[in-house]
Design a protein that fits this description.
The chain has 16 helices and 21 strands. The chain is of the alpha+beta class. Helix 12 links the parallel strand 15 and strand 16. The strands form five sheets. Strands 8-9-10-1-11-19-12 form a seven-stranded mixed sheet, sandwiched between helices. A six-stranded mixed sheet has the order 14-18-13-17-15-16. Strands 4-5-7-6 form a four-stranded antiparallel sheet, covered by helices on one side. The chain is globular, with a radius of gyration of 23 Å.
Length: 577
């Protein structure tokens, strides 16, 4: 549906989203959640599935805060990797987003712990087919005191995706096209505080894209000068950059005195790299950190046994998987080989024995918390006989060899990457497939796989916007046409979406996903995503490994911290005793 018929009221959307958001706020201690789907929901009205992504403004505009942040104390956030940049347009890394989300605001945000949209630099909005209007917040300032206006968003958009703009950022990340560039035909301002955006087509998740970390607003003055966004920052968010210490993996933020909202509640926020899971957990137990993430089963037990700390969990909206790079390896261009490997790898053992039940087996690209998850698809069971038969049918009965690239430290979607890789190597060795493991630091891993140098890789994805499109389109659509007669594209194809680490390009899958983007009705979108899921299941461009819970270690001195699977972390509302 398009044009005038697709208009949705913002109030009705927020009402729907408020009753259909993913539950992500569990705060009780736990030892290894089984990862079952109780209370999770799959968009059919029986659980906590996400909103439809088509919503519009609520029109209630809360005005401006007093900017009197800093209620006292220091909040120390321990994580497995340091931020490689502070430029939100120059990264695909969640480690960067954790920091930049404290400094910068988008036009729209997610409510803490929910999939519902809420106002930020925009106080009201509407979407009618291809026409989007946003009313902007008056009085918001960047931390240098410069007033925020519509010009800042226009410059941000053009820097990201407009190569005719003098200040276009040529090295911008793959987020540019699928967040804004592919969908916006034009952006115009009506005065300083109204934006009128015309889309290239009806695009159901567009408003949700505006809440993504990559769509935060940068200052026009900085864009059109020599401001170094990689190592400095100037945002409208609750915190401002005080110190970037790359050598020691530390970032210090302090309250933005010009912040338009309430908060923050602490005097300083420290992001501290502690690469080893056990070291990070021990630091929490000893009171050296207040919050840690990316826990594995061993560190969960360590935190549970610590005095003054607890494990908090919530349902994740993520997937861990193994990519077949079809651009690089001819063997992986045969669906029978991909299916064979999917049958050979014991994902049930990985989830239950390696991850110790803090995840569930995956069956398809879209996790069960979203309405695009097809409940009729079961995970591939381990079946070595079926795997061997498929390899022989494809002409690889004697096996072959490939390199498996992985990150070294735990991620939320893969709490034990090296044991996972070892399990895969052992499983495939039974079929005569030799796997060599290439383990890398996370930033190096992202660069290496982003350039298409991997044969296969362990990978994963956290949702950016709680819409199925963020999985199906972002991760498996090449965003270019596939050559006739093949379902893969070369990595060096102009315009290729490098987030599609498989270089997969199945025409039927692409058509279903594209139609879902243009469709406003959620039931119709769901049916199209079910179709896409079936294709992805049969064609197996990935080995689907797991959907993991969101798990954090938190000191008892921390108040008002919510485990969020979308956006954030919302540290502006957190206080420390």
């Amino acid at each position: 549906m398009s044009g005038k018929d697709s208009q949705v009221s913002r109030r009705s959307f927020l009402k729907t989203a408020g009753t259909a958001t993913v539950a992500m706020t569990a705060t009780t201690s736990m030892a290894g959640c089984t990862g079952d789907d109780d209370g999770g929901g799959n968009g059919n009205g029986n659980g906590n599935g996400n909103g439809n992504g088509n919503g519009n403004g609520n029109g209630n505009g809360n005005g401006n805060g007093n900017g009197n942040g800093g209620g006292g104390g220091t909040l120390r956030y321990g994580r497995s990797a340091h931020s490689a940049t502070l430029d939100p347009q120059n990264t695909t890394s969640g480690e960067v987003a954790k920091v930049t989300n404290q400094i910068y605001d988008g036009l729209i945000d997610f409510r803490p712990g929910e999939a519902a949209l809420t106002e930020s630099l925009a106080t009201d909005w509407s979407m009618d087919g291809e026409d989007v209007t946003l009313e902007l917040r008056e009085g918001a300032q960047f931390d240098d005191g410069t007033e925020f206006t519509a010009d800042d968003f226009i410059a941000t958009y053009r820097r990201f995706v407009d190569d005719s703009y003098e200040y276009h950022f040529a090295e911008s990340s793959a987020y540019g096209p699928f967040t804004l560039g592919a969908w916006i035909d034009s952006v115009e301002k009506d005065g300083d505080y109204t934006l009128n955006i015309t889309l290239t087509q009806p695009y159901a998740p567009f408003l949700r894209n505006l809440a993504m970390f990559a769509a935060v607003v940068l200052p026009q003055d900085g864009i059109e000068s020599d401001f170094d966004f990689d190592s400095d920052a100037n945002g409208t968010g609750s915190f401002q950059l005080d110190q970037l210490d790359d050598a020691n993996g530390r970032i210090r933020l302090t309250p933005n005195e010009n912040y338009w909202g309430d908060g923050p509640q602490v005097d300083e926020l420290l992001f501290i790299e502690r690469g080893q899971n056990s070291t990070r957990a021990q630091a929490l137990a000893q009171g050296e950190l207040e919050i840690i993430d990316n826990l594995d089963p061993d560190t969960i037990s360590l935190v549970e046994d610590a005095d003054g700390a607890e494990v908090r969990s919530g349902q994740g909206i993520n997937i861990g998987y193994m990519v077949f790079n079809q651009s690089r390896r001819e063997e992986f261009r045969d669906a029978r080989v991909r299916q064979a490997i999917s049958y050979a790898i014991d994902t049930e053992a990985i989830v239950q024995e390696v991850y110790e039940g803090i995840a569930e087996q995956a069956s398809q690209p879209c996790p069960p918390a979203l309405f695009g998850h097809n409940p009729d698809l079961d995970p591939y069971p381990q079946d070595l006989d079926q795997a061997q038969s498929l390899l022989e049918e494809a002409g690889y009965g004697d096996g072959f060899s490939f390199e498996l690239t992985t990150f070294q430290n735990a991620r939320g979607y893969n709490p034990a990457p090296l044991p996972t890789a070892e399990t895969i190597r052992t499983n495939l060795g039974e079929l005569g497939i030799e796997v060599s493991i290439d383990d890398r630091q996370f930033s190096d891993y992202l660069t290496y796989t982003g350039e298409g140098n991997h044969d296969a890789s362990l990978s994963g994805w956290y949702t950016d916007n709680a819409d199925p499109d963020n999985f199906y389109y972002v991760l498996l659509h090449p965003q270019v046409e596939s050559p006739d007669g093949q379902d893969w594209v070369s990595w060096d194809t102009d315009g290729f979406n490098t987030s599609n680490r498989a270089a997969w390009a199945n025409g039927n899958f692409m058509s279903a996903v594209e139609e879902a983007q243009r469709t406003a009705d959620q039931d119709e979108r769901q049916g199209l995503y079910y179709e896409a899921a079936e294709i992805a299941y049969e064609e197996a461009p990935w080995v689907y490994i797991d959907y993991a819970d969101e798990i954090r270690g938190v000191r008892d001195s921390v108040s008002n911290y919510t485990v969020s699977a979308i956006g954030g972390p919302h540290l502006d509302i957190v206080s420390v005793e």
